[in-house]
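Q: Please design a sequence for this.
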């Protein structure tokens, strides 16, 4: 037990072990499918579960979970800021071409998820679990915060539903990014060629990397994310939305006063890869114990419902975007991830398509999806009251 204690007392060891084993797991190919960077999520889940089950000291467990959450936030900032700056050079053209379509995709994904969740809740006695499942299936922390704020007396039920629904929601988006092109026979290479024929993607390796400007992007994003928008709704973009918005806008501006936001592509790619691996590993580490130890028939059914809600919402977004709006898959894949407010999904989309252009769709759809989650959570609570 002494050796185990030396390991669990060092969360950095657990983090890098999860990342290392995740990279190796992600390289395993079954047919045309491999987990890629998402392997870090699964290795983190297993390691997180195993280590926590070996600890009898609750103080150590709480300290570990707190550190894992810090890893989670830091890696999220690293990943989002780098992909936002990479995609910023094309964001104006992408939004101009697809415009209101992003808003409609966000609406239909969050609305269909809401309708499906509400329907399933009618068969259960504790309907407030499904408020949490709705936010979990669409991986929306702002949705959870809105629900808890609006119905604090049901916080336990709502949080439980979210914790049960989150991992299936994450897995649904990740797998969808790999399997949709297979199911619908999408030629990713051709989609990229069609998109790039109309826009030259920014990969200038001759530019430098200004850490002062990079820190300014992050600080600005954190401040923007804290601004409440809309009277009575208590809606804000949070760290993810704020940093994404600042990196896209400032990156598109290029230069502002003493700040130069034209960052070296290769450096940003390193930040992106490391941030994503760290993000996925930390999600697994802090969720592994709860995910595996709460498994029984009831929780299994709730997780299954969350998976169904997530997949249904994803396919609604895909079908509308592809067959009604005629959108290019590279941009649509990012829009679907944005509609699901799923950062792990964004990482999977970048990995599966081998293209950072997906971030433009994600960035343009994400704020509307956050707003949709806030509004539909409030509607859900009104219907239950």
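A: Design:
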């Amino acid at each position: 037990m002494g050796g185990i204690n030396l390991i669990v007392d060092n969360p950095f060891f657990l983090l890098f072990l999860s990342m290392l084993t995740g990279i190796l797991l992600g390289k395993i190919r079954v047919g045309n499918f491999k987990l890629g960077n998402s392997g870090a999520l699964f290795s983190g889940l297993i390691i997180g579960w195993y280590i926590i089950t070996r600890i009898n000291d609750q103080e150590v467990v709480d300290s570990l979970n707190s550190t894992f959450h810090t890893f989670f936030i830091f890696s999220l900032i690293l990943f989002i800021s780098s992909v936002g700056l990479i995609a910023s050079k094309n964001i104006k053209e992408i939004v101009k071409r697809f415009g209101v379509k992003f808003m409609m995709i966000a609406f239909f994904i969050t609305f269909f998820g809401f309708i499906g969740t509400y329907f399933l809740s009618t068969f259960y006695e504790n309907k407030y679990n499904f408020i949490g499942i709705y936010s979990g299936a669409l991986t929306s922390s702002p949705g959870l915060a809105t629900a808890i704020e609006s119905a604090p007396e049901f916080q336990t039920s709502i949080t439980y539903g979210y914790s049960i629904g989150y991992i299936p929601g994450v897995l649904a988006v990740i797998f969808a990014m790999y399997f949709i092109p297979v199911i619908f026979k999408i030629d990713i290479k051709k989609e990229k060629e069609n998109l790039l024929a109309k826009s030259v993607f920014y990969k200038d390796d001759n530019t430098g990397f200004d850490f002062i400007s990079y820190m300014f992007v992050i600080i600005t994003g954190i401040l923007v994310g804290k601004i409440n928008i809309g009277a009575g709704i208590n809606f804000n973009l949070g760290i993810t939305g704020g940093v994404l918005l600042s990196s896209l806008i400032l990156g598109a501006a290029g230069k502002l006063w003493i700040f130069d936001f034209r960052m070296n592509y290769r450096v940003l790619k390193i930040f992106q890869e490391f941030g994503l691996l760290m993000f996925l590993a930390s999600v697994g580490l802090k969720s592994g114990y709860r995910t595996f130890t709460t498994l029984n028939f009831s929780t299994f059914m709730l997780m299954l419902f969350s998976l169904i809600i997530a997949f249904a919402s994803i396919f609604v977004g895909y079908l509308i975007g592809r067959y009604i709006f005629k959108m290019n898959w590279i941009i649509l894949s990012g829009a679907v991830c944005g509609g699901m407010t799923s950062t792990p999904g964004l990482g999977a989309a970048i990995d599966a398509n081998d293209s950072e252009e997906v971030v433009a769709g994600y960035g343009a759809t994400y704020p509307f999806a956050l707003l949709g989650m806030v509004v539909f959570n409030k509607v859900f609570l009104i219907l239950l009251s």
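Q: Thanks. Anything notable?
A: Residues 88-272+291-384 form one domain. The chain has one domain: 88-272+291-384.
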